[in-house]
Amino acid sequence: MTSTPSNLRSPLAHARGLGSAKDGTEHWWSQRLTAIALVPLTIWFVFGVIRHLGADYAAFHAWIKSPFSAVMMILVAVVTFHHAQAGLQVVIEDYIHSEWRKLAALIAVKFLSFALALACVLAVAKIFIGA
Amino acid sequence: MANGSGRPLSPHLQIYKLPLTAVLSITHRVTGVGLAVGTLLLTWWLVAAAVSPEAFARAQGFIGSGFGLLLMFGWSAALYFHLCNGLRHLVWDAGKSFELADAERNNKIVLGAAAALTVLTWVVGLAVW
């Protein structure tokens, strides 16, 4: 150890390469990954919605009972909610400056996104299994 | 500038006329938040389809109503804008198209593509409905 270190960070902190945010590029990268995934998923979803605009219960069930449609619909729900909560997190962090309000909004968005995504997945699974 | 220092003032949002690139930037966020709210309708649709024919008919009835169709139109326009502008963000993430002329050209491509896709979707949608 030299008497005048040029870097005040510990060797471990230096190796981790993370700043005071305790976070690297994971959030940014997952937002991009989900964005790329949503391009084909969204196009499939829009066409699916168009084809079932006036569909009755039986026609809708026939659609979701196809394994491909069920998998795509679950992917649409999960990836959409993941992308939505990631984006809303950034918006909340940028515009809400009171710490407890920011935290409350973040928790609400995370919990709600998780619960709604799960509800969508369960709904698709239920239709697919025919329970 | 009028602050006496000879240095430029930072733009004041209520006076400064936002360039189109900045308008599209904030619109990306606004449509993103709107689409996030729209996931409530997606959840209702899927859960209703899993619950009963009556619940699904109610959800389909709402979507097919005047207000529902207005929401769907807004949803599709917001979705296509967010999709097209999102692709442009991915191009920026790749480190390309930062020149002012490129940005201004891409503004027009994003707006044109989003409008064209929205109209195309509704033409096809109303034709098959």
UniProtKB/TrEMBL annotation, chain A:
Cofactors, names only: heme
Any one GO biological process: tricarboxylic acid cycle
Role, per record: Membrane-anchoring subunit of succinate dehydrogenase (SDH).
Residues covered by region (Disordered): 1-22
Name this polypeptide is given: Succinate dehydrogenase hydrophobic membrane anchor subunit
TM region positions: 33-50, 62-83, 103-129
Main localization category: membrane
Record keywords: Electron transport, Heme, Iron, Membrane, Metal-binding, Transmembrane, Transmembrane helix, Transport, Tricarboxylic acid cycle
Subcellular location: Membrane
Annotated GO MF terms: heme binding; metal ion binding
Domain of life: Bacteria
Topology with respect to the bilayer: Multi-pass membrane protein
Organism: Azospirillum cavernae
Listed pathway(s): Carbohydrate metabolism; tricarboxylic acid cycle
UniProt lineage: Bacteria, Pseudomonadati, Pseudomonadota, Alphaproteobacteria, Rhodospirillales
InterPro entries in UniProt: SQR/QFR_C/D, Succ_DH_anchor, SuccDH_FuR_B_TM-su
TrEMBL record, chain B:
Membrane topology qualifier: Multi-pass membrane protein
Annotated keywords: Heme, Iron, Membrane, Metal-binding, Transmembrane, Transmembrane helix
Molecular functions per Gene Ontology: electron transfer activity; metal ion binding
Top-level taxon of origin: Bacteria
Any one Gene Ontology BP term: tricarboxylic acid cycle
Membership in a protein family: Belongs to the cytochrome b560 family.
Protein name per its UniProtKB record: Succinate dehydrogenase cytochrome b556 subunit
Organism name: Azospirillum cavernae
